[in-house]
Design goal:
The structure is a single chain. This protein is of the alpha/beta class. The protein has two domains: about 90 residues, no CATH class; about 350 residues, TIM Barrel (Alpha-Beta Barrel). The protein is built from 14 helices and twelve strands. The chain has an eight-stranded parallel beta sheet with strand order 3-2-1-12-9-8-6-4. A hairpin with a 1-residue loop joins β10 and β11. α1 crosses α13, α5 runs parallel beside α6 and α9 packs across α10. The model has no long low-confidence stretch (mean pLDDT about 95). Bound molecules: L-rhamnitol (RNT) and zinc ion. The site of L-rhamnitol has 11 residues, from loops.
């Protein structure tokens, strides 16, 4: 396929910019704002949530990665190399989100309650070299002590203690990452705890979870280095009847303990959207984390596509920040964005690139929203609001996106796919 040429891209961009300017939209400001929004790229798309532990257990925890596309990263070096390829195809400056099971243990069996900063020193050095922020997650699944589906809320005190220690160490690793890189690490705690069938007692496990979390977070850490987040969900495979860390549980927990609340797009009833929750929770919480994902019929963690749902989420990320009287130039201050999905049936680097480019594209669309839509609402003219919302859907934002990619030095349009194919032939297919 012929590559779009630079001249055509700038001509299309100029025309688009004029069209937007006539609607009171400052395209230049939108692009500057977009360039300041980092997306945290999740390491677990790179190897189907495998990790690098010696003698690690089966995935479990209700997480399922399906497919067997060739070429998945088998070592930290391979994963970093794949990340570099993906990042070279995504416009802007971003972050990398690591799980504890991706430490470098040098062939030793290091249990989860023994992990430390040393196991992540190569990741930190690599992030510094590539000017990337890091985020972190304790791994409370894929382990014999999580085999019955419970961790921090487990009825057995010893098991709870084990996971508390793991989470505490994870926060220390977060601090080290934040210090080394000069940008706070978000350490996000998600536990799979739940019950396949109707529990006789829902209250006690929830009380135990709150108590365990309190002891995880006992040590105060500087928000300059580490920000704690907690992530709830509705249900999981094998935990259909009750999830201990439900949305209500964590909403209350985050508000009372001043933690970031992580809202995952796949963790609610399918007719509920996290887009609508952002403006509510930000009334009571200074900062939140979003796990941008795509559930198909269930929390299936499909690659993020350019759906109405994604557009609604991105729109609220931008609009809520504006509604709060803050500059849309700094949405990162209150809303942190991460991707969370894992598809093993397609090229894994393409999966990262598709999801990240889509999220950025959706943020750009939101930043280009004509102000007349809000003005119509303010004037009580809901007819005009609807008319303008619909007309804005065919404004030439694709030309602005192409120009953004071009100026950020990444391939325009589908040209990135050829680079992934080349890498697949030269690198991935040699991983036998
Ligand atoms: C699971 C949660 C959680 C995980 C990652 C791997 O349902 O979404 O965020 O996907 O920690
Ligand atoms: Zn998630």
């Amino acid at each position: 396929m012929p590559r779009p040429n630079t001249k055509k891209i700038s001509t299309a961009f100029r025309l688009a910019r004029e069209r937007y300017a006539a609607l009171g939209v400052d395209v230049g400001a939108a692009l500057r704002a977009l360039a300041k929004i980092p997306v945290s790229l999740h390491c677990w798309q790179g190897d189907d949530v495998g990790g690098f532990e010696t003698g690690g257990g089966a995935l479990g925890g209700g997480l399922v990665a399906t497919g067997n596309y060739p070429g998945k990263a088998r070592t930290p070096d391979e994963l970093r190399m794949d990340f570099e390829k993906a990042l070279s195809l995504i416009p802007g400056k971003h972050r990398v989100n690591l799980h504890a099971m991706y430490g470098e243990f040098g062939g030793e069996r290091v249990d989860r309650d023994e992990i430390g900063v040393a196991h992540f020193k190569n990741w930190i050095a690599w992030a510094r070299k590539n000017d990337l922020g890091l985020d972190f997650n304790p791994t409370c699944f894929a382990h014999p002590k999580a085999a019955d589906g419970c961790t921090l809320s487990h009825r057995d005190k010893g098991i709870r203690q084990f996971w508390i220690e793991h989470c505490r160490r994870s926060r220390e690793i977060g601090v080290a990452m934040g210090k080394a890189l000069g940008t706070p690490c978000i350490t996000n705690v998600w536990v799979p705890d739940g019950f396949k069938d109707t529990p006789a007692d829902r209250a006690t496990p929830r009380a135990r979870l709150a108590e365990s979390l309190d002891s995880v977070f006992e040590k105060p850490l500087s928000p300059k280095h580490n920000l704690d987040a907690v992530e709830g969900k509705l249900f999981g495979i094998g935990a259909e009847s009750c999830t201990v860390g439900s949305h209500e549980f964590y909403l209350g927990y985050a508000i009372t303990r001043r933690k970031l609340l992580c809202l995952d797009a796949g963790h609610f009833h399918p007719t509920e959207s996290i887009a609508d929750k952002i403006s509510s929770v930000l009334l009571y919480l200074p900062e939140i984390l979003l796990h941008v994902s795509r559930g198909v019929r269930w929390d299936s963690d499909h690659v993020v596509t350019f759906t109405d749902e994604l557009q609604a989420i991105a729109r609220e990320v931008i609009a809520t920040t504006i509604g709060w009287g803050e500059s849309p130039l700094e949405p990162r201050r209150r809303i942190h964005l991460g991707l969370d999905y894992f598809d093993a049936s397609i090229n894994r680097i393409a999966a990262w690139v598709i999801g990240a480019r889509n999220l950025l594209r959706a943020l750009l669309l939101a930043l280009l929203e004509p102000p007349a839509i809000r003005a119509a609402e303010l004037a009580g003219d809901t007819t005009a609001r609807l008319a303008l919302q619909e007309e804005s859907k065919s404004l030439p934002f694709g030309a602005v996106w192409d120009y953004y990619c071009e100026t950020k030095g990444v391939p325009v349009g589908e040209a990135w796919l050829a680079e992934v194919r080349k890498y697949e032939g030269e690198v991935l297919l040699n991983r036998k």
